[in-house]
Amino acid sequence: MAKLANIGDFEKLMETVKAGRESSARSVTVCCGTGCVASGAHDVIAKFQEELKTRKIDAEISSKATGCHGFCERGPLVVVFPDRIFYQRVSAEDVPEIVDETLVKDKVIERLLYSDPVSDEKITHEPDVQFYKRQQRIIFGSNGMIDPTDMDDYIGLDGYAALAKVLSDHSSDDVLDVIERSGLRGRGGAGFPTSRKWRITGAQEATPKYVICNADEGDPGAFQDRSLCEGNPHSILEGMAIGAYAIGASEAYIYVRAEYPLACKHLEIAINQAEDRGLLGDNILGTNFSLKIHIKKGAGAFVCGEESALIASIEGKPGEPIPRPPYPAEKGLWGRPTNINNVKTWASVPYIINRGADWFAGIGTEKSKGTMIFSLVGKVNNTGLVEVPMGMTLKELVEEIGGGIPGGKKLKAVQTGGPSGGCIPSELMTIPIDYEELAKVGSMMGSGGCVVMDEDTCMVDVARYFLSFTVAESCGKCTPCREGNGRLLDILVRICGGDGKEGDIELLKELAGAITDGSLCALGKTAPNPVLTTIEYFRDEYEAHIKDKCCPAKVCKSLITYSIVADNCTGCLACLKACPAGAVSGEKKQVHVIDQAKCTKCGACYEVCKFEAVSVE
Amino acid sequence: MKRIGVFVCHCGHNIGATVNVTEILKELSRYPGVVHCKDYKYMCSEPGQKLIKDSIAGEELEGVVVACCTPSLHEETFRRIADSAGINRYLLEIANIREQCSWVHTDPEKATSKAATLIKTIVEKTKLNDSLEPMRIPVKTKALVIGGGVAGLQASLDIANSGYEVVLVEQNPSIGGHMAQLSETFPTLDCSQCILTPRMVEVGQHDNIDLRTYSEVEEISGYAGNFKVKIRGKPRSVDLEKCTGCGDCWNLCPVMNKPEIRVMQSVSDSMDPDMRSNLDAVIDRNGCAREDIIGILQGVTDEYNWLPRDAICYVAERLEIPVSYVYRIASFFTQFSLEPRGKHIIKVCLGTACFVRGAPRILSQIQSDLGIAPGETTEDGLFTLETVNCLGACALGPLMVVDEDYHGRLKFTRVMSALDSYK
Amino acid sequence: MITFKLNGTEVEVEEGTTILEAAKEHGVEIPTLCYHPAFEPYQVCRVCLVEVIKDGQSKLVPSCGYKVEEGTEVLTHSELVLKRRRTIVELILAEAPNSERVLAIAKDLGIEKSRFESKREKECILCGLCVNACNDIIKVGAIGFAKRGTQREITTPYGEFSDVCSTCGACASLCPTGVIKVEEISDSEIKPILSEFDANLSQRPCIYVPFPQAVPNRPVIDRENCMYFKTGECRICEIVCQPEAIKYDQDEEITEEEVGAVIVATGYDLYPIERMKEYGGGEYTDVIDGLQFERLLSASGPTQGEVRRPSDGRIPKRVAFFACVGSRDPEHHCSYCSKICCMYMVKHALLYKERVPDGEPVIFSIDVRTSGKGYEEFYTRAKEEAGIIYIRGKPSRIIKEGDGYEVWAINTVTGKQIRVRCDMVVLSTAIIPTVGAPELAREMRIPVDEHGFLSEVHPKLRPVESLVRGFFLAGCSQAPKDIPDTVAQASAAASKVLEMFARGEILAEPHIVWVDEDKCATCKVCIDACPYEARELDEEKKAVVVSDALCQGCGCCVAACPTGATRQKNLDDEQLSRMVEAIFEQEKEHSGSD
Predict the structure, then answer these.
(1) Is the pLDDT of residue A22 over 70?
(2) CA A179, A180, A183, A188 torsion: positive or negative?
(3) Could you give the ipTM of this predicted complex?
(4) pLDDT confidence of A130, banded at 50, 70, 90?
(5) Is residue A608 over pLDDT 90?
(6) Chain centroid to CA B219: how far?
(7) pLDDT over threshold 90, residue A361
(8) Every domain of chain C and the residues it spans
(9) Which of B31, B42, B97, C197: CA 20 to 30 A from C227?
């Protein structure tokens, strides 16, 4: 691949690439995001290639593996272009049929289509799927169109045009102005205005300066950073290059979880390609601007998502946060001014440059601009990654995009912001997605996790769950986080175990106060949020556990008993076989009995029973 | 020839019992130049002294020999008589017939003869003695006191209070000596510190005392009245002028034992050479600076599935950092294991999405079936069970990953059969 | 300068000052645990949290690391601060319920007991002082943190003995809970730096003043043990010294003084207890010498005046005192009587009895010498009123028996062999000249006796003058003596000096040598022969001249001079030959008459 010597060369290349791709020729894409791969997407794409080759039509009909489409729930996903015929849950065995019927004969295969869970209607085209319909896929949109290992795919979609534009006629101040006018705020959680952060770093006298991409996505229930790194790595690189140009940095790091091997691989490939093309490295596109991007793999510590811990980790130190001030913008990596942004923030930048600040600012609410990518997970029909404009209500998100709650259960709460966020009760579902609005109800935007909980969820148990997460992930450096959160967890475990005491709620609140006010870093400071919000909105559940010794959601093992409903039991032996503790006894076709002394309350019997003959009380 | 007088002292029995003084007188009175010869029981007593004085005047003696005890005891006494009698004091000499004769001999006859000889030799010397004048040496009126114990303090104060300067040299960092260590003093049982401390303070503040603690006398030359002293001030490492004695330094100095500096033991020779070359390759790939440590440990984990002890030590050695530092990093991040791990690694996702979809139940089933808790390895070394706080594949929850294989949407019933394929 | 409001009062501090420092400067105390003035603020214990109000917004920040900002308001003891501080201290107290430091802070906040139960095995509050000292200050890295979260701990790699630990003990000395122990970190022999002043019964740091009342009250660095002088690291004292008085590169300084007289008061040492093998000296920890017992009795001593055994801190119920250890033992040790032991043993026994009323002092002695004013009465009172047991006889050995010791002796009154069990033994070891003092005396050319004590001119008539003129003796440098005698002799020596100064000159004997300059061949043999450095070559005169003041008239040079140029006044060659002739004539006369 020849190095591009100047901006003119780049423009020529872009024209060539676009021309080559503008044919209306038929093509097929297979989503190869982690979710789909886990469901067998690699076999599917391999089969496509094999089938097309066997039929000797691989020249006319191209096939490619793309990044994540977001609708992981229904993977592996196959989209046939140009009509965007959308097949879901495709297996390798389905491939010959798709080739023969759809690719060759242009016929739609009914059984592979997605049927809307609400209307039961079969949907043929991808954009018509309810899941996608209500989304505004800007940053995430290209994921499904490009092969992340092929740079030209990205260039074909105006990739690196923003960088070229900036390098040809923008001063660093110009870039800062655009970003400021766009109203872009950090997508990593706190929502600090991006332009302000860049300006502070840029204004420092010390050199060299660094930019860092925080791809240490550790929030349980969030995987949008992973999807972007895997599916569209060049957009991140381009954003970083523009940011580095504006700030005056010539070295950059991407800190990515080692648990995301595919993301690491795709980023590495992308960096190499961009360097080969002269879009990264020394004298980018013949200008004076140079940028070297390094990849640093995290080794498994949630706390390394915290800026100072992340920096420490890059420096080869344990991932422990250091007190701020000084902020990384003043003294960051190697003690130099450093700007850290989240993957999604960086990836937003090229779009803003290309389409203009006003376009971006036109999306969203007054203070929260643009779109936000959520991982919509939990007890919701359509799980997956969604990109929606700021300002959409949670209700819309859950019901219209998510397709509501499975099994006709009732929505209880939505937890946003990862383990540091709060649980928002169903009655507050009408609030719009906005940094300030979420904060007002005790939660936060965070990295974009959005966990839906139904009536079967015990909120005390959820609080306990989140605390057990933060306690396990706390670095243990400062007292309030280490000891305080540990004690919080102890108390929650006790309450869930039926040993709650009068005054526990007050003690939880007191501890939470000390942790929030006293902890060294944001991990500690925000860790009590799930506890505080669940106490705030579901205090009755706490009281039921403490005073009545019962778990209303029938989750907490110590407070429930499993028993056989004699009327429903058919004596099928299913529960008896499933019980790991040997607590179920009975003969075939006779009503079974659960020995309460042996029962470990694992719920296996309840899960396997097809006759609703196991009850939980 | 000089007119010599000889005066023989009996010194009680000290001389008289052994030496025949009468015989001596007889013999000496015949000796050339001796014009006057007398004896007396105690020549140093007042009548004895008077006898000599009168004789010098009366007999016009020009030289005097006193035969008696050692000159170190009474030379000055008798020379003062010469002064007062008007002859030069150095014309008087002593013949020591006590220490050099009577005290060391038992035979009276021989002792008497020896005494006579001794006296005669001194008579001969005295005959040729010149009149001399004592030398007058001016005195430097400044004293050196060596030692700052109670004796040195007392002496210094006495001299200083009389208006003379004192240089007080103490080898220890403080004055006070052993007395400062005592609790009470006998027989009055008063507190040692209470009586000593005011003295110490007085010395420390005295205008006439130049206190040199932590110093030693290196050399003294010269002579009485005019000594030259070299004092070696040992380096305190503290500037006495600037120091305020606030105590911050000694209260905060943490070193309480004699440090013995030890160097890290090398493992490179004792370890498996294959492992060493593997590790070298990993380190060369990642770099050899402290900042590369995480990458190196990841490389080692890729190689061995865990971090063997030798590997940790060797990495420390190559990176020239303490083993404790590598150990700290290795035990901090969940990706690293300090225990050998099984052939297959089962990671059960406990992310929120998986959690609300029943991941804990899946975990407890695996636990009870394999008989291991998270972080443990089965006895046959086949499986290691680990939990992970989100694998970012939430749509597949509940989810477990065995090695690189994702097993999503796990059902209670499917867990164990999924694992069976790895056995 | 920065102006801010501290608890409602406007104050000024220098830019860059932390809130903690600023508060201290203005007399406001904020509790701390993980803070150490020489370390980068670690800011983890969070005990020092204070409230900062900036632009109308309030937040809690750790005062140890947070720098004062212009125009802000700082509340160190607001209701919120105290509430949060209490919770945090309670959390810490739960893990360190016995730490005096933590207990004191808790008490100030009105906390009696933590509501939380302890969870960790060790009373470690993970303040990090030990780890940060070992890694960032001492730069050894023997210990470190390991694991994370509630599992976080401080350990050596693999929890095994460290092979790099220098056993310096910085970790242990900084630990606020006392949980860090060097012997758990290293299996090397730990050699505590012992306080000379406390007769090795307590430890002292490397920069120290020997005792609180020291004059001058200024510290000294023990270069033998100071980390900086071993590795160039640490520098804590330099960092914390506000007046910048620490000078590691200070050299020794030689100064010259001209003085007229010298008083030698070099004092004494005790005969080394290690030489008393039969008593287990140096081997048995509870067999100590008299000075050590003094420190045990002293209110400012290592036990604050309580008599406790060095080995285990237990109060000894029976203490044996041995007299004449090394004294009056011409065969093995010192022949002389050390003079003060009989009396200080009476004192020791009395004071021990006073501190430990049910204790039993037993004194073994050959006899008791009470020659001093009031001494006999003191002894009698001790024997009769305090019931101190005296046993006649010198013990032959001490055997360690279980927890205590057994003294083997013969009671010379009854002639019976006895064995006495006791918990501790105090040996009244002999007084010897201070180590190095005899060498110093030799250097100064003043004579010492066979024991190394300085010789006086005459034991009765000139007891404070040295045989060399201009040197005077005071205290135990001359012979063992008690305090009254010491002080008396010191004053006597001073008065001798004063006599000399008052006169302004001294008279010197004139019968020194002189040189017949015509005969001198300048061969310089005399220069080497002179022990007083009184001869030197005068280039102008072309002769080796005599310094009248230095010449002592010893005659060495006269004998050495090959040309007969050097001659002695009143001891000329003529005189000498006449004296010799006189001897021969006498011989002749006597043999002739026989």
Answers:
(1) no
(2) positive
(3) 0.88
(4) confident
(5) no
(6) 20
(7) yes
(8) 2-108, 129-185, 261-506, 513-574
(9) C197
Contacts of B321 in chain C (CB under 8 A): 141
Measured CA to CA in angstroms, residue A484 lies from A459, A478, B317 at distances of: 20, 9, 38
Best of B298, B302, B356 to disrupt the A interface (most A CBs within 10 Å) is B356
d(CA A583, CA A600): 8
Q: What is the pLDDT of residue A546?
A: 96
Neighbouring-strand partners of residue B136: C507
How close A308 gets to chain C, by Cα (Å)?
14
Nearest CA in chain C to B326: C157
Distance CA A32, CA A38 (A): 9
What band does C591 get if pLDDT is binned at 50, 70 and 90?
A: low
| B181 to C294: CB separation less than 8 angstroms, yes or no | yes
What is the second-level CATH architecture of the domain A151-360?
Answer: 3-Layer(aba) Sandwich (3.40)
Q: Could you please state the CATH topology (level 3) that the domain comprising A25-81+85-124 is classified under.
A: Glutaredoxin (3.40.30)
Across the interface, of A300, A316, A379, the residue whose CB is closest to B334 is A300
Separation between Cα atoms, residue A257 and residue A267, nearest integer Å: 12
| Residue A276, min C-alpha distance to chain B (Å) | 21
Cβ-based contacts of B365 with chain A (< 8 Å): 580, 602, 604
Query: In this complex, do A383 and B353 lie within 8 Å of one another by their Cβ atoms?
Result: yes
Give the pLDDT mean for A233-256: 96
C2-108: CATH topology is Ubiquitin-like (UB roll) (3.10.20)
- What's domain C261-506's superfamily in CATH? FAD/NAD(P)-binding domain (3.50.50.60)
C120: closest chain A residue by CA = A483
- Write out chain C residues lying below 8 Å of B229, CB-based: 256-259, 262
* Cα→Cα distances C506→B226, C357, C549, Å: 10, 60, 11
Residue to mutate among A602, A606, A614, A616, with most B CBs inside 10 A, is A602
Between these two residues, A156 and B413, which has the higher pLDDT value? A156
| Domains, chain B, with CATH or none | 4-128 (3.40.50), 142-233 (3.50.50.60), 273-332 (no CATH), 344-420 (3.40.30.10)
Would the CB atoms of B389 and A218 count as touching at under 8 Å? yes
- Say if residue C357 is preceded by a cis peptide, omega within 30 of 0: no
Confidence band for C593, pLDDT divided at 50, 70 and 90? very low
Give the per-residue pLDDT at A538. 96
The separation between the first and the last C-alpha atoms of chain B, rounded to the nearest angstrom, is 135
The distance of B388 to chain A (nearest Cα, Å) reads 9
Chain C neighbors of A484, CB-CB under 8 A: 87-88, 91
Of C217, C508, C569, the CB nearest to B137: C508
**Does domain A561-616 sit in CATH 3.30.540.10?**
no
What residues in chain B have per-residue pLDDT under 70?
none
Q: What percent of chain C has pLDDT over 70?
A: 99
* CATH value of C513-574 in 3.40.190.10, 3.40.50.620, 3.30.70.20, 3.40.50.300: 3.30.70.20
Q: What is the pLDDT of residue A1?
A: 64
Asked if CATH classification 1.20.1300.10 holds for the domain at A459-548, the reply, yes or no, is: no
pLDDT tens string C100-109: 999 999 999 9
**Token reading at A261:** 């091997």
Length of chain B: 423
CB nearest to A479's CB, from C45, C66, C147 = C45
The pLDDT of C445-459, averaged and rounded, is 92
Residues ≥6 apart with Cβ < 8 Å to C63: C18, C19, C20, C23, C30, C48, C49, C50, C74, C76
Nearest CA in chain A to C83: A514
Domain locations along chain A: 25-81+85-124, 151-360, 371-454, 459-548, 561-616
Residue C480 CA to residue A96 CA, distance in Å, equals: 114
